[in-house]
Amino acid sequence: MLSVQNLGLHHSVNYLFQNVNFTIKNDDQIGLVGKHGAGKSTLLKMLTDEINFYEASIVQEGTDPIGFLNQELDLVTG
Length: 78
Fold this sequence. Notes:
By secondary structure, this protein is mainly beta. The protein contains one helix and three strands. Helices cover 10% and strands 35% of the residues. A hairpin with a 2-residue loop joins strand 1 and strand 2.
């Protein structure tokens, strides 16, 4: 289970997220949708510690890692 309380991220003086709260249970299947630039990838990066957040309480029960596929892939040619 993943529980997020009071998640907030701001750039300059504007918040991208403020007071976001949610819980994802072990058997939940979720989809994250929103318009371009709404912060979907940023939210996922915050949950995987790729972006340091300014405010939040994130509690993860169990040892299952959080992961996602980036929308932009690094291609290696050879």
